[in-house]
């Protein structure tokens, strides 16, 4: 018979993502509702080593569902990546009598959670990253807000770019994944979307497209460039030198990580926060929460971590048809 779950902990790890607070709130309130004591660990895995455990109560998460960032703070923790790091962290968690740990974070945070699971800590993962780059899930908390932030910024840049008849390169985040670029590019009607998964480094094509587009009387030309490709300033200089058309680069950077989460992020974060505690209370062990086929599922952490990410065809096809590819289409 499984022993009763009495004390659990929650932490946020890796890059912050809008909606993390809604997930923490879901965890805290559900735990309290079940009579489970809940501890917030500050600063991600680093807070385990520093023993930054604090018991949380319902009022600690009041008025947080709408807040960006994470009230528990976050960090990227080198110690967890060292050979004996997870074992030490597991020992500290055991000393604090933690029966289960909810980790809200991205791929790297889940790798840390997987290592903890091997050291006897029961972990439940909630995907929280703006990058949407986790293989086992169709959705990660923060992606929707980050895309909406990027779309808002790109629309504004487009206004100015059109007024000056310039070409604009907008660099969006995503580490080595192109999801933010792809979705924000489709949503803003960009002329080009460059993402690491598909970009062929063909600058000549980019330049030809711009020249032909300009000859046809188009006054704007927006190129969305993913962080994984980078070098937006260099690209702008090369395009301007080759075409004589003023070209400016804007790197959106960390503003994509901040801000009040969208309703979609709040909703999924709440759903996952609640489910994480239900799983722990029911005796489930080492699961990652995922959105799959529109539903909420939980997968074994080892199986889930083996899953690869594939950009859905319908998105790349749409981008392909609606962006401007001079070399593929010779009339519009
Ligand atoms: O994973 C989220 C993310 O914002 C990535 O898009 C980006 O590459 C990275 O984090 C930046 O990390 P840091 O906050 O450590 O500079």
Brief digest:
By secondary structure, this protein is α/β, with parallel strands linked by helices. It has helices spanning 20-33, 46-49, 85-95, 107-118, 143-163, 179-188, 203-215, 232-243, 263-282, 301-306, 313-322, and strands at residues 7-12, 37-41, 53-55, 100-105, 123-127, 167-172, 192-194, 221-226, 247-251, 287-292, 295-300. Helix 4 (107-118) links the parallel strand 4 (100-105) and strand 5 (123-127).
Q: How does this model look, in words?
A:
With 332 residues, this protein is α/β, with parallel strands linked by helices. It folds into 2 domains: 7-142 and 261-305, Rossmann fold (3-Layer(aba) Sandwich), CATH 3.40.50.450; 147-257, Phosphofructokinase domain (Rossmann fold). It contains 11 helices and 11 strands. The chain has helices at 20-33, 46-49, 85-95, 107-118, 143-163, 179-188, 203-215, 232-243, 263-282, 301-306, 313-322, and strands spanning 7-12, 37-41, 53-55, 100-105, 123-127, 167-172, 192-194, 221-226, 247-251, 287-292, 295-300. Strands 3-2-1-4-5-10-11 form a 7-stranded mixed β-sheet, with helices on both faces. A 4-stranded parallel β-sheet has the order 7-8-6-9, sandwiched between helices. A hairpin with a 2-residue loop joins strand 10 (287-292) and strand 11 (295-300). The protein is elongated. The N and C termini lie far apart (68 Å). The mean pLDDT is 95.
